[in-house]
């Protein structure tokens, strides 16, 4: 029996949403929304719920099945991870966007925060590197610090054709062949679509271990399939707990009543905020462990909701610009803007009730009142007080904000958070009447890259790129 079936564990580890001033009457002054505002959307909400059901039945949202229906895949992942942990010192993800941000977010949340700096015997597993760019300096620098023979490269691409990932793959392929000869395939794992793209074909021809990204699971919704589960398992994260947390949240989000469904209520409030011109959604965790969750959320929210056309073809130009912030760090950088700048933001804080480790501030310098008040508290007290103070400052300035509270950071709560934000994003897409699962704006850029690099068959596209220089610009200054 896994833990999501245990009621005490569920309740104790359940994520909570504090609406701060998003809802009138809950707390604080006036800016938030009333029950009447929400109830006025009752028809829309019930249609959106119905549409979600239909899409799920049609297999368009199979990421919701991931916490429940992958027993064979999980077995394969766990066995592979166990074998790799006996010899692999570095596990390198080659991927970008949805094929990189989830592994990075989960790793940072659930493994040691200075993980990659620890000696192997203390870590009890390989270092994880997520190479999500084609910056030549960064790629070259990786090869300075890893021994390719003791490294496994996990090339991840849903489409199997993303230029950045394929370029990285080609570089690693050559490197491994040069260093390891014909045995190189054991250092390569491919995670991709069962049919689409070049990667699956190469993987099969070259004999790589392969994991499949299921149909109906788009890149930015793929953390809980082998995309995220394999790197997590290899690095010692309890993926069963991660999935149990997601399953638990998924069940809570089956609820049709908006007031009882955590994803629907957050979606509805965001939708109302967008209607009032709140075009920016800030995600601000008060823990370094969730720093990269803000990056993962940024892609999820931006690509899913930033759309020109509605489902019925009208030009709507909707979406909310996601902003990544970190508490307390960005209190000293961005919060001035949030409190006094334009009234165009909704801030979501990610708070933690119990930090996994505490550090006491010693009672020293008692004769200096300006700092002696800190002595005797813990850093956990300080960061929590600063989070509450920022919520208060925003409320006082009538700025919309809400808080998702994790009882503590563990695989079960992280699984919940992933599922909550994915369902919230999909449901917001329904409220906005747009397709939350495509990204036509990005495809255009991908095609333009092919054209600029002269990929055969894209000459026609190249012609379309009016005004784009075909050669590197001569910079004048
Ligand atoms: O996983 P891949 O097919 O390589 O795609 C990687 C990324 O490519 C594009 O930028 C898409 O807009 C993203 O949604 C996707 O996550």
TrEMBL record:
Keywords: Cytoplasm, Gluconeogenesis, Glycolysis, Isomerase
Family matches, as PROSITE patterns: P_GLUCOSE_ISOMERASE_2, P_GLUCOSE_ISOMERASE_3
EC identifiers of the protein: 5.3.1.9
Residues in the signal sequence: none
Regions crossing the membrane: none
Cellular component annotations (GO), alphabetically ordered: cytosol
Enzyme class: isomerase
Pathway where it operates: Carbohydrate biosynthesis; gluconeogenesis; Carbohydrate degradation; glycolysis; D-glyceraldehyde 3-phosphate and glycerone phosphate from D-glucose: step 2/4
Role summary: Catalyzes the reversible isomerization of glucose-6-phosphate to fructose-6-phosphate.
Protein name stated in the entry: Glucose-6-phosphate isomerase
Organism (species): Desulforamulus reducens (strain ATCC BAA-1160 / DSM 100696 / MI-1)
Gene that produces this protein: pgi
């Amino acid at each position: 029996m896994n833990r999501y079936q245990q009621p005490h564990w569920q309740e104790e580890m359940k994520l909570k949403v504090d609406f701060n001033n998003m809802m009138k009457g809950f707390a604080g002054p006036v800016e938030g929304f009333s029950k009447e505002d929400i109830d006025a959307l009752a028809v829309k909400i019930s249609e959106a719920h119905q549409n979600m059901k239909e899409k799920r039945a049609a297999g368009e949202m199979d990421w919701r099945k991931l916490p429940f229906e992958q027993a064979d895949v999980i077995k394969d992942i766990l066995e592979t991870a166990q074998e790799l942990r006996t010899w692999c010192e570095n596990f390198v993800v080659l991927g970008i966007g949805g094929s990189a941000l989830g592994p990075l977010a989960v790793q940072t949340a659930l493994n040691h925060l200075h993980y990659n700096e620890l000696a192997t015997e203390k870590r009890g597993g390989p270092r994880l590197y997520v190479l999500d760019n084609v910056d030549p300096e960064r790629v070259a620098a990786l090869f300075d610090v890893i021994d390719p023979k003791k490294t496994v490269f996990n090339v991840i691409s849903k489409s199997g054709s993303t230029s950045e990932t394929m370029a990285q793959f080609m570089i690693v392929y050559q490197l491994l062949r040069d260093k390891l000869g014909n045995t190189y395939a054991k250092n390569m794992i491919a995670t991709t679509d069962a049919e689409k793209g070049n990667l699956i074909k190469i993987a099969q021809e070259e004999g790589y271990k392969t994991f499949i990204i299921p149909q109906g699971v788009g890149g930015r919704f793929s953390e809980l399939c082998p995309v995220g589960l394999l790197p997590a398992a290899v690095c010692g994260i309890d993926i069963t707990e991660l999935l149990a947390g997601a399953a638990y949240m998924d069940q809570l989000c089956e609820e049709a009543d908006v007031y009882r469904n955590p994803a629907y209520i957050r979606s509805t409030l965001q939708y109302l905020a967008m209607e009032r011109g709140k075009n920016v959604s800030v995600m601000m965790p008060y823990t370094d462990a969730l720093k990269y969750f803000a990056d993962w959320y940024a892609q999820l929210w931006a690509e899913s909701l930033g759309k020109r056309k509605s489902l019925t073809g009208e030009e709507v130009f909707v979406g909310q610009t996601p902003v990544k912030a970190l508490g307390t760090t960005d209190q000293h950088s961005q919060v001035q803007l949030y409190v006094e700048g334009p009234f165009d933001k909704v801030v979501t804080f990610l708070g933690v009730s119990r930090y996994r480790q505490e550090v006491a501030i010693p009672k020293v310098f008692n004769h200096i009142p300006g700092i002696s008040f800190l002595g005797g508290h813990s850093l956990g007290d300080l960061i929590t007080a600063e989070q509450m103070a920022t919520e208060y400052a925003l409320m006082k300035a009538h700025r919309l904000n809400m808080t998702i509270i994790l009882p503590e950071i563990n695989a079960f709560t992280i699984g919940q958070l992933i599922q909550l934000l994915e369902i919230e994003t999909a449901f917001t897409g329904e409220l906005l009447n747009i397709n939350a699962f495509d990204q036509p704006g990005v495809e255009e850029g991908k095609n333009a890259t092919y054209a600029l690099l002269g990929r055969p068959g894209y000459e026609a596209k190249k012609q379309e790129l009016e005004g784009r220089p075909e050669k590197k610009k001569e910079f004048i200054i």
